[in-house]
């Protein structure tokens, strides 16, 4: 991919890009892995804790406790987004906050907040899924394909 | 008067009668805070949206500049403004308030010097008595239009830059021979340079070649030695672009003394690691030039400076369509 792109460039452009590359500080990938692992793990541990609370104190069983647990995590992420803290944590944590359901909640709440100035219908309504919609579209499409494959295998079996 | 291929020399030496810079709360924490005429404690500036807040920055910068020049807005023959927003709304809406004849410009972050060059040309050719050049940018409105919602948690790489929340304006008038004034002596208009870079989180590397071409053209057209200026300053290359440009100067034998070359994107926030490579945006070169640099020149710190404002002429749409980033730079020389 990168090579195909580079072939379209002139020699001067290629030389410049190599020169520019040598001046760019690289992304701290190893550090990002560690941070994402820590924060992502922490969020999952928190989710596990919340689920345990729902099971032990609110009479849910392990299967039904999933939904209220996710709802609490979404609420927390939404509140942190509204208070303007989430993006700061995310700059530090990277994929650690983006991959769990907190990242999905943040993408919707931040877009809704941002476009409130254009009104509730066209602003909030029209834009709140701006970042989240690819996840939904391709999530549904992937689920359909996987479901189809599973059905076919079961029919064959 | 045309000099060389793409430069103007202003024989009448138009005067910068006054200049003003207005900034936001984050700029107020930076090392140049004292050089702003007005600093806001709130990024919304008592407005309902980021876009309105950005417009206020330009309106206030224009007001301050007019106040300092001792003229009213009715005296302004032409207002030359531009900004980063779609359809340059901040400038056009500020022009509505100003009610002066208006020419809207778009040069992305190079607009500050594009405006100053044209304002000086108008005054030099006796096509205006007073011309006002101004521009502005707002961190949140730029994030909203070019990147993600302001509160969205996306991690930025170390080459990214922080869009400056600031506005700057300058009033250019005729040279009546009064001493101790700042004069605009020449300008070089840059051409679009595209080295095929596509990463919008690495604008410094994309814009550095444009700055290089304009600076090279300036010295070639005017046939000046490379140590003419006490200070050569680029608009918003940041640390990455600054270091690339230093390298380019050396490789191509442009012997500008490197201790006289600085970047406004580095100056405005100093060593703050929270802005990654440095500041960017129309307001960056405008606020640093019209606030910090001209103030220092009035105090006698420098006699001659060359301001090279750099702009990345991309849109979120062209980026998504896989286009590379075309860049431009305009240079203006200011002398005491």
From TrEMBL, chain A:
Listed transmembrane segments: 36-59, 65-85, 92-111, 131-153
Taxonomy, superkingdom: Bacteria
Signal sequence, renumbered to the chain: none
The UniProt record lists the keyword Membrane: yes
Keyword Membrane annotated: yes
UniProt cross-references to InterPro entries, sorted A to Z: Spore_V_AC, SpoVA
Keywords for this protein: Membrane, Transmembrane, Transmembrane helix
Name this polypeptide is given: Stage V sporulation protein AC
UniProtKB/TrEMBL annotation, chain B:
Parts forming coiled coils: none
Alphabetized InterPro entries for the sequence: SpoVAD, SpoVAD_sf, Thiolase-like
Molecular function in Gene Ontology: acyltransferase activity
Taxonomy, superkingdom: Bacteria
Protein name: SpoVAD
Source organism (scientific name): Tumebacillus flagellatus
Lineage of source species: Bacteria, Bacillati, Bacillota, Bacilli, Bacillales
